[in-house]
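Notes to self, 2-amino-3-ketobutyrate coenzyme A ligase, mitochondrial:
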Amino acid sequence: MWLAVRAVRAVRGGGAGSGSPRAASGAAAAQLRQRLESELEDIRGAGTWKSERVIASRQGPHLRLAGGGGGACGEEEEESSIGVCFPRCDGPASLSVPAGIINFCANNYLGLSSHPEVIRAAVEALEKFGAGLSSVRFICGTQSIHKDLEEKIARFHQREDAILYASCFDANAGIFEALLTPEDAVLSDELNHASIIDGIRLCKANKYRYKHMDMQDLEAKLQEAQKHRLRLVATDGAFSMDGDIAPLREICQLAQKYDALVFIDECHATGFLGPNGRGTDELLGVMDKVTIVNSTLGKALGGAAGGYTTGPKPLIDLLRQRSRPYLFSNSLPPAVVGCASKALDLLMESNAIAQSMAAKTQRFRSKMTAAGFTISGKDHPICPVMLGDARLASVMAEDMLNRGIYVIGFSYPVVPKGKARIRVQISAVHSDEDIDRCVEAFTEVGRKHGALP
Ligand code: PLP
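result:
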């Protein structure tokens, strides 16, 4: 039947994908277009326009960019130092970007996004369970693999239960409103991720914002919040712009003193921080003091998509009844579930991949520091190279790409004024040579542009 539909479309030369776009007519549409164009111009004028580079290969340590950079990737695959296969990039360079771009700007901390076993698990889940559920979970969208993955996530984090979402953005959007009422209070680090900020906006609890990782300020806010029924301290476990780690021990001590609960967002920690990769709470020895963990399946855990909350069973039960992004959005597709499930299996079997990433992080941080750069944070694969000046960060990042090193410069308003930086993210699948090439390129580019003497 599908063939017949395709044949009819071919004869008519039509189908959903053909024809030029239709512009809506009428005064309101014209007014809207004008307003949008002026807003877009403002963004360009402010120098905060975000453009997207198009990748024409798999996510991995070596990339090919669409339209040129990175050389031609053949069908062959090369094996990295941890036994992970990636498309080989050895074709001729084109444009000004050299062949074999080394990628230092994905959250692919463990290199599992293109791990052959992760890909195989996705294909098997796709074949066995189909493309998707065409339903939310509570109508007819729960398969055995969703329940298995939730059980695995809870076991991984040593929590009572877990609930899946389409993303961690959704997990953060859904938890505060479901849990907190106007009788309660939430205390949030000022540099928390946008999705925590939005989730908190949606709830009716009393809101307190404490200065970034400032325990005196948190204590003062906790004292103020004593009048409310329940207090929830919410923080990123690791902060993605600075590579710094929340002082969870101190936060948990204060939470105990002022009878508060602790929530952490572990998107930049799950799978690799702590002796067994359980996250910031394991790293800092407070797994039994943190009540709620939200995290993503879209970074270290296979990199596909998806998020979750794990914690006490009654909380997870309540989220299944009340959390709006869970109730009113489609189930995670089986292939995505398959990826994450296999990634967790690999991590529960061995922490060799996480150790490999830690060693490479250490190599990069120490070589860059020896070269004269300041790297923010400590022991985290997010390694922000602090430059201060926004223009310097931007031209250096561009020049790094000309040398085949893909890194991104960040400046105001993404980071505070005067604190522009180039963020480098280390992955377990970078080789030592990749790391050394990156340091060499930074040193050359830094000297050229005056960031180094
Ligand atoms: N929380 C933090 C700290 C993040 O960095 C991100 C993603 O950038 C998210 C939440 C959202 O995660 P997801 O991509 O699963 O929606």
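- The CA atoms of residues 391 and 420 lie 8 Å apart.
- Residues 69-95 have pLDDT under 50 and may be disordered.
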